[in-house]
User: What shape does this take?
Amino acid sequence: MSRISPKITEKIAKLFLWSAAIFTIGALIFVISFVLAGGLKHISWAFLTQPILDMGREGGILPAIVGTIFMVFVAIGIAAPLGVASAIYLAEYTREGKVTQAIRFGINCLAGVPSIIFGLFGFILFVVMLGFGWSILSGGLSLSAMILPTVIRTAEEALRAVPASYRDVAASLGATRWQVVTRSVLPYALPGILTGVILGIGRSIEETAVVIFTAGSAVQMPTSLFDSSRTMAVHFYILAREGISNDMAYATAAVLIITILVINVSAYTMMHRLTKGRRA
Amino acid sequence: MDRFISKLLFLAACSSTAILALIALFIFKEGLPIMAKTGIGHFILGKEWAPLSGQFGIYAFIIGSLWVTIGALIFGVPLGVSCAVFLAEFAPPKWVGVLKPAIELLAGIPSVVYGFLGVMWLAPIIREHLGGPGLSILAASIVLAIMILPTIVSVSIDAIQAVPKSYKEGSLALGATAWQSTWRVILPAAKSGILAGVILGMGRAVGETMAVIMISGNATTIPHSPLDSVRTLTANIAIEMGYAVGDHRQALFATGVVLFFFIMILNTVALKFARRKF
Assistant: This one.
């Protein structure tokens, strides 16, 4: 009867953990390089600046880029103020209790609602009942509901990271609570809040299920908020799913991935700078 | 003035809960009538989905969702928890700064891209080496496993780091090795937090739509093997929503009602576990 010595177990366990981590990072690198390898060679200035022709077989993706930007603007234009206001209430204006518990439960549950449900909701409320039709407005409103929890959570974390002395000093100078928040707390928490906003933008760009049922998939260049438009993600989905053009699909996916990379890296560096500044 | 602002902020804070209530209201309002008409038991346990002849049974899709979710957990949980243990306990600190955001980036990749990768790369491999149509439960499970990794990893890391330092120090002082301390002391203490991460990951897997549509094959029959094609609840809604009208559309909202129930139960359980302290 010999048991494996603890030292050997330790080695095996560490080996396993290392391989798990390497596998995970490998998956990330694989996904990104798979898309870039297939798509980068098809990206050109013309691809980014031309209209979608022949359902996507020819031309470029400019209307999808513009549609994405419009929809993100609507989504963030609503979710950012609402989310930051929620966070200010939770972090600065109230004590933990039954009410905040209920509010937090709502936020956590909303964060877990699948995107297809947001799609159904947006379709029935904005597209059908309010009569906005398949439009950038309907899509943006539905997206704003989806990204709200992300914005709230990050903003609250940023507000809670502000040292108490900032509030005490301002309050001791006779500032009202609102003055304390706007003049002293918010400026300090701004980078953290912006991180949440950027993450919300990222979530909106990568989303497909919500947008396809609320904004439709028109290929024309959108000229108003009431126009239907496809986002880059929807365009890519249709190209890939209906087998319209693999080259164009790869290229669109590559643009999408690069956008997401830039957004995530900038969110991360902003967060990083914040924590660094706090340590100093 | 200050009191007015306070009221305004309170209203903003309630918006998430209000939106959640609105979502429930609209999905239920659209979905419940057809459920009542078909009979809830018949709707949930009915094996026939034939919208044209008014047959609305979603049993096969419930089974489909269960299969791909369990599959995703089988691949994703060991991998995710191992990653979390590695990052929280064993990784060189310099690595953590790179690896953690990299894993979070996995969550940022659009689900349609995962689906595309599954179609172009994974499904052919499965078809050639294991047989079947390739677009299958197995393919969906593997892709979903990677998609839920970030959730499992980040929640588990938080849980492990929340274990008081003294636990580990005590164990090490008694002569246990680092791994023994992790396995016997830290993991049991972090168990409920890790479980919360796993359940949240499960919620993500159940709710994922676009990737699943692309790689699960969407057969409306009940699957018998991991290599079979399958359709999930989410896929059922998304595939037919584009052209459904009348009863058919209502039946899709009713599918949404069932999905909503699943997710709410998972969320509530996860929040319970997450709140549990030592």
Chain B has one domain: 21-275. The mean pLDDT of chain B is 93. Chain B touches chain A through 85 residues (CB under 8 Å).
